[in-house]
Amino acid sequence: MGTDKTFLEFEGKTLLNHAIDLLHIHFPLLLISSNSSELSRLKIKVVNDEVLNCGPLGGIFSCLKQSETEWNFVLSVDSPFVQHDFISALENELVGVDAVVPVHKKGSEPLIAFYNKSCLPAMQKQLNSGNYKMQNLLNEVNTKWVDSENWIAKYPKIFHNLNNPSDLKMG
Predict the structure, then answer these.
(1) What is the DSSP string of the chain?
(2) pLDDT 10s digits, 38-66
(3) What's 9-169's CATH class?
(4) What is the pTM of this model?
């Protein structure tokens, strides 16, 4: 996209507001991973990356460390098509694992997933070694891969990310 997607307008509201509106129904406490000073005006806690320039792993790590709950749902701001019933279905899979991640024939969705604080040591180890790949983390911890083909059949755009200016017009 070439810019921070947080405040881009999509279907009449910012991508950030889409995410907040979806998540506040499921979770009483929200954290936003961002190093942007523009977010300081929000009433939601903004968490800066403890380790800079390491992609999503650093943001998830920093938020997990500051979270008050054992389980945390991660949603990238550019994923406005995720549905309430999908989050609830993933939430039903949280027993006996460290992470719950949707998977489908095109790949996995580590930025639309649940992470337990039990992932923190593996995340710290990866960050210390300069290994920032989410897939490597998920192979290291006890990950439950949830087949999500049926969700794609129900909601064809559920995993579509808004990555180009033209995507903002697709609604």
Answers:
(1) --S--TT-EETTEEHHHHHHHHHTTT-S--EEE---GGGGGSSSEEE--SS-SSTHHHHHHHHHHH-SSSEEEEE-TT-TT--HHHHHHHHTT-TT-SEEEEEETTEE-TTEEEEEGGGHHHHHHHHHHT---HHHHHHHS-EEEEE-HHHHHHSTTTT----SGGGGGT-
(2) 887 888 999 999 999 999 999 999 999 99
(3) alpha beta
(4) 0.93
Partners of 68 in the β-ladder: none
* Cα atoms in the Cβ-side hemisphere of radius 13 Å centred on 16: 17
Residue-wise pLDDT for 84-95, tens only, equals: 999 999 999 999
Give the count of alpha carbons within 13 A of 9, CB side only.
3
**CA–CA separation, 107 and 89 (whole Å):** 19
Q: Which amino acid is at 161?
A: N
Q: How many CB atoms lie within 10 A of CB 44?
A: 13
